[in-house]
Write a structure and sequence with these properties.
The protein is mainly beta. The protein has a single domain, classed as Neuraminidase (6 Propeller). It contains one helix and 24 strands.
Length: about 290
């Protein structure tokens, strides 16, 4: 049984998108529905929360020191010192019924982010690539975009439309950022869906299972290697961090839970940390 620790005292409605910042020795993550950007600093264990003007789906640390944030309608850079925003780009033809969801930088520092319907699951979302401020549509017909991460060499991109209950692997052109023909990497049980993912230094993929109360480690061939069971059902994402990148930080949610469910699951919505005995990889910064 893994030693599972709670980080901070906040309870998120929809915690997502954890990203470790080695320079600050801090973890950033978001509460999508609460419209919060949060930061936990390892030294002193201080949590700071900033309200966002729109729902925020994901983030990346920018090379210039700002925080790249995927808001409901587009991308912006947030200055945590001043609280100001610099608009980067709008999602093209974006409907008010859509919002951003899972997003992450590839190994070359291009940011990828998916959009989805805010209140239903119609296939009207897209997957975008943002490169030096320019935005390109990479996939269409998306319902719930998730599981974005890359192999250590950057030559494979993993991604899921969660309701397919499949994690896909795409050959990835490192130079151009183009996608090849996808293949099935891992099938997911019908009782849960693949949510956020990360890849460790050994090339294994860690998949948060929403509805499954667990994170699953997959070998490079897709086989299940290891399972971490957690005291919350709605497990949303995970990322490596800590001083030696050996801690797996795991977000969770309370969304759509009634009073009885919350009472039965008091650790729902918490941010967890588990020392897994495996090191992760440093997340690339956005270079745009």
């Amino acid at each position: 049984m893994a030693d599972i620790r709670r980080i901070g005292i906040r309870t998120d409605e929809l915690g997502e998108g954890p990203v470790w910042c080695p320079r600050e020795r801090a973890l950033y993550w978001v509460d999508i529905r609460g419209q919060w950007l949060r930061r936990w600093v390892e030294r002193g264990e201080l949590v700071t929360s900033w309200p966002m003007p729109e729902q925020i789906g994901s983030l990346a640390i920018a090379e210039d020191g700002g925080i790249l944030v995927a808001l409901r309608s587009g991308m912006a850079v947030f200055d945590s010192m001043t609280g100001g925003f610099r608009k980067l780009v709008d999602f093209p033809g974006h409907s008010p019924t859509l919002r951003s969801n899972d997003g992450k930088c590839d190994r070359q520092g291009r940011f990828w982010v998916g959009t989805m319907e805010r209140e239903n699951i119609a296939p009207t979302g897209k997957l975008y690539r943002i490169d030096a401020g320019a935005i390109t549509t990479m996939l269409e017909g998306v319902r719930i975009p998730n599981s974005l991460c890359w192999s250590p060499d950057g030559a494979t991109m993993y991604w899921a439309d969660s309701l397919d209950r499949v994690i896909w692997a795409f050959p990835f052109d490192i130079g151009s950022g183009a996608l090849g023909e996808r293949r099935v990497f891992a099938n997911v049980d019908a009782s849960e869906v693949p949510d956020g993912s990360t890849v460790d230094a050994e090339g294994y993929l860690w998949s948060a299972r929403y509805g499954g109360s667990r994170v699953v480690r997959h070998a490079p061939d897709g086989a299940v290697d290891r399972v971490i069971n957690l005291p919350a059902r709605q497990i949303t994402s995970c990322a490596f961090g800590g001083s030696n990148l050996g801690t797996l930080f795991i977000t969770s949610a309370t969304q759509n839970m009634d009073a009885a469910q919350l009472a039965a699951e008091p650790q729902a919505g918490h941010l967890f940390a588990v020392d897994v005995g495996v090191k992760g990889l440093r997340e690339p910064r956005y270079v745009g």
